[in-house]
Structures are given as structure tokens and as C-alpha cells.
């Protein structure tokens, strides 16, 4: 076994395992081989681990650090990183915001898409994120048709674990949809490229760096027929499904007027009410719908900052979790969040639910679960989101010597209650990623 295949994190001041008992270890250590954790312990690191002398491991000292499982982001639109704080949409709600920005996004070049993905990935990594999804639904007619490939190339350069979703829009304004003609595609084109991307990139193996999902955009930009065909294609290849749903009351009104049913009924009618589906936002569900979602095992990507920025509403996180839904956290696109900071998103989730429901309405532990275990569940992974033998060696280290953490009592709670600071180090599959490049 070459030394490069062995990794050891040691001396963690606080190690948050997110294991079954939610153990938090003092002076914790994590040993890994070939990117996967082999042992987790506390106290002095043994002289021999998994039959190998300690001095053969490539070691990372985590003294004075809180170490979390790598955080997981389950919904993003990386291309929007090129239009943050755009003057055309600063004070708009969702439909007006989209219609203001579609023409701007239609002019993005291949270089813009690559740069946007690269910047978004770097921001995510700096916030402790080691696994992210991206919902790429925009395909301008003047850009390359292989934009998913461009984001995958950027992810490989940064070193982040990546679940790109091949998104789609097929209904333009002329068909009764919201987007303009020059950013939508024909159904046959969408399905053919979806199959191409799955065949070329999807890796179902444990520890995979790259997996694909399929993601028609929304009820106001895609046909029910394409939703149904996409689900059949995804299931024939064993990949997951993702879309926006119940983000605003405008969406509910649109679905009632165009389809004669509420968004969740539309989803069910095309075969999407199933455990291989996760939805972005999920704000405007009634009690009956929440029960149906939980019974079906549908996951929800909670996007608090974006929902606040656009005035969309507040997701009923506890009700969804109690019903049986996996609820995860997501930064959403960087034109409705204007940031890709997942640690800041965790803080926002904690504070948002407390301001609407009281200080007991959301706990630090619940938010940690959403950002780790909930994310892994939504993305269909049992090898991420926790620090246990057999899981990916994905770690986020936060330095308690940072001025923002001076004199803290509970070091884990401090990550959410104090001002979010960049991770000192991030590890993805035993590879340590540089988080010090602060400039664009």
C-alpha cells in the first residue's frame, strides 16, 4: 500500500461524527484508505491503525479545529454566479425576477458558464462543502449544447464531489411557458442529451466523485409529457430526479389555471411522487400534501436565503421531516442568494425558523442533520454526510483560533451562531483542497 493511499486526520479539538448516536468526540481522529474512512477514534492516535504504522499515513493536524463531515449542497444554479446582485432583479419576486434575467442569461458564453461554475465551486468549498448538486436547465442557442460537460470540467479542477443534474426547459412563452424561445430546447434534444450525459459520466459506485440526475425545470417551463418521459429515462438508468416545486403562490395559481390542478397533483400525475425524487423549495404544501410527500419518501432541498431574498415564503421543515421526508439544505442560485456559502445558509436556516416560530423552532442539531445526513439522503448516497467506517473521507475543518470564535462556549453551536468564517481546510476523498484563494 503506497503512502499516498493512506490518510490520517488527528488532534481534532471537536469531531462531529453524525453517526447513529450523533457522537461528538474530543481530540478525535479519522483514518482512511483509498478515499474511504477505515477507523474513527478519540484521544492519542494509535501507533498502528488498520495494521499500518501511523508514520506511513499522510497526516493532517486538526488541533484547535471543529471537524464536521463535509457539508452537502442539494440545489444550485451555478451559471447564475455571473449575475449576482443584478440591477434588473434586485427587488423582484420569482416570476418577474426570472423574466428580467432570462435575456441576460441567454447572452452567456461557454467561458461564462465555466467561470461561473469554477467560482461557485470555490465558494462552496471555502464554506466547508464537499458535495454539491447543480440544476443546470439553461441552454442558450448561441452557447455549446454540452454545458453539463463544462461544469463537470470545472468541478474536476476544483476537486469537489459533484452531482450535476441535466436540467431542461421545453415550454417557452409561445407555448404558454415563462422563458423566451432562445433558452429552451426540443423534447427530443433534451432526452437524447440526457441519455448521453448519463452514459458518459454517471458513476453509481460507492465513493463516486460524479453522479448524474435528470431535472426538468418547473411546471411553468416544461411539458407534463416531457416530465413523464424524463422519469422513465431516469429510472431505466437508475438515476435520480429533481425539479422545482411549490416555490411560490404564483406557481400554484399558474398550475391551477393551465393544468387544472395543484403542483403536487401535477407531479403525481406524471409519476414523480416517489422516493427517487427530491424537490427544490417545497414551501406551499398543505397538510394533506405534506403527508403524501412523506409517505412517498420524496426529499426536499430547503433554500432559506433565496426564499427570503425573493419573498417566496418559509418551508415547513419540521412538518416535512415529521411526515418522513428527508430535508436538506441548499444555497440555490447565486442570483437569488448572491452567495454560495453553505455555512452561512445553515445559520440562515437556524435564524429564519426561530424568527417565525420562536427560539425552540429550530435547533443547531437539526440544521447539522439537514446539511449532512439530509443532503446525503436527498442525493441517494449512504457513503457521505457522516464520519464512520465505510463512508467517504470528506471533512470540513473550522479553526477555533479565528477571531470570530474567540471565547465561545459550545464550539459546534458557534459555527452557526457566530459569523460564518471560511473553513481552514477541506478534505474530499482524502485529498486536501486549498481554501486560501480568496480572490476571483
Provide keyphrases for this structure.
440 residues, Urease, subunit C, domain 1, TIM Barrel, 8-stranded mixed sheet, 8-stranded parallel sheet
Structural notes for this entry:
- The protein is of the alpha/beta class and 440 residues long.
- It is built from 13 helices and 18 strands.
- The protein starts with 5 loop residues before the first strand and ends in a 7-residue tail after the last strand.
Layout: helices, strands, pairs:
Layout: E1 6-16, E2 24-33, E3 36-42, E4 48-49, E5 52-53, E6 58-61, E7 65-69, E8 71-73, H1 94-105, H2 110-126, E9 129-136, H3 147-158, E10 161-168, H4 187-201, E11 213-216, H5 224-237, E12 240-245, H6 249-258, H7 263-269, E13 277-281, H8 287-296, E14 299-302, H9 304-309, H10 317-323, E15 327-329, H11 342-357, H12 364-378, E16 395-399, H13 411-417, E17 425-428, E18 431-433
Parallel strand pairs: 1-6, 1-7, 8-9, 9-10, 10-11, 11-12, 12-13, 13-14, 14-15
Antiparallel strand pairs: 1-2, 2-3, 4-5, 7-16, 16-17, 17-18
Helix pairs in contact: 2-3, 4-5, 8-10, 11-12
Amino acid at each position: 500500500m503506497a503512502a499516498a493511499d493512506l490518510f490520517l486526520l488527528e488532534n481534532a479539538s471537536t469531531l462531529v461524527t453524525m453517526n447513529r448516536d450523533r457522537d461528538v468526540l474530543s481530540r478525535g481522529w479519522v483514518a482512511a484508505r483509498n478515499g474511504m474512512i477505515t477507523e474513527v477514534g478519540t484521544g492519542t492516535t494509535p501507533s498502528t491503525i488498520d495494521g499500518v504504522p501511523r508514520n506511513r499515513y499522510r497526516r493532517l493536524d486538526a488541533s484547535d479545529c471543529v471537524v464536521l463531515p463535509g457539508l452537502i449542497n442539494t440545489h444550485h444554479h451555478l451559471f447564475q454566479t455571473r449575475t449576482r446582485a443584478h440591477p434588473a432583479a434586485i427587488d423582484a419576486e420569482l416570476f418577474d425576477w426570472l423574466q428580467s434575467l432570462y435575456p441576460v442569461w441567454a447572452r452567456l458564453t461557454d467561458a461564462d458558464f465555466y467561470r461561473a461554475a469554477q467560482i461557485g465551486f470555490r465558494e462552496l468549498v471555502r464554506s466547508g462543502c464537499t458535495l454539491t448538486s447543480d440544476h443546470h436547465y439553461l441552454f442558450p442557442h448561441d452557447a455549446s449544447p454540452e454545458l453539463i460537460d463544462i461544469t463537470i470540467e470545472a468541478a474536476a479542477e476544483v476537486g469537489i464531489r459533484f452531482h450535476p443534474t441535466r436540467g431542461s426547459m421545453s415550454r417557452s412563452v409561445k407555448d404558454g411557458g415563462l422563458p423566451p424561445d432562445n433558452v429552451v430546447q426540443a423534447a427530443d434534444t433534451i432526452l437524447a442529451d440526457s441519455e448521453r450525459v448519463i452514459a458518459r459520466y454517471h458513476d453509481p459506485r460507492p465513493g463516486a466523485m460524479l453522479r448524474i440526475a435528470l431535472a426538468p425545470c418547473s411546471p411553468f417551463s416544461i411539458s407534463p409529457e416531457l416530465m413523464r418521459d424524463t422519469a422513465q429515462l431516469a429510472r431505466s438508468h437508475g438515476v435520480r430526479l429533481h425539479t422545482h416545486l411549490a416555490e411560490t403562490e404564483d406557481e400554484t395559481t399558474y398550475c391551477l389555471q393551465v393544468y387544472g390542478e395543484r403542483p403536487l397533483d401535477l407531479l403525481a400525475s406524471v409519476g414523480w411522487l416517489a422516493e427517487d425524487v427530491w424537490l427544490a423549495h417545497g414551501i406551499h404544501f398543505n397538510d394533506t400534501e405534506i403527508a403524501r410527500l412523506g409517505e412517498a419518501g420524496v426529499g426536499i432541498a430547503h433554500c432559506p436565503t433565496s426564499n427570503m431574498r425573493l419573498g417566496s415564503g418559509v418551508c415547513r421543515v419540521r412538518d416535512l421531516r415529521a411526515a418522513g421526508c428527508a430535508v436538506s439544505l441548499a444555497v440555490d442560485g447565486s442570483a437569488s442568494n448572491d452567495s454560495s456559502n453553505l455555512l452561512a445558509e445553515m445559520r440562515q436556516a437556524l435564524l429564519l425558523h426561530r424568527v417565525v416560530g420562536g427560539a425552540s423552532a429550530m435547533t443547531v442539531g437539526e440544521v447539522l442533520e439537514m446539511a449532512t445526513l439530509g443532503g446525503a439522503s436527498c442525493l441517494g448516497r449512504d457513503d457521505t454526510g457522516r464520519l464512520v467506517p465505510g463512508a467517504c473521507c470528506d471533512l470540513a475543518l473550522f479553526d477555533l483560533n479565528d477571531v470570530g470564535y474567540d471565547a465561545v462556549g459550545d464550539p459546534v453551536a458557534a459555527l452557526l451562531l457566530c459569523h460564518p468564517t471560511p473553513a481552514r481546510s477541506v478534505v474530499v476523498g482524502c485529498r486536501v483542497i486549498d481554501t486560501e484563494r480568496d480572490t476571483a
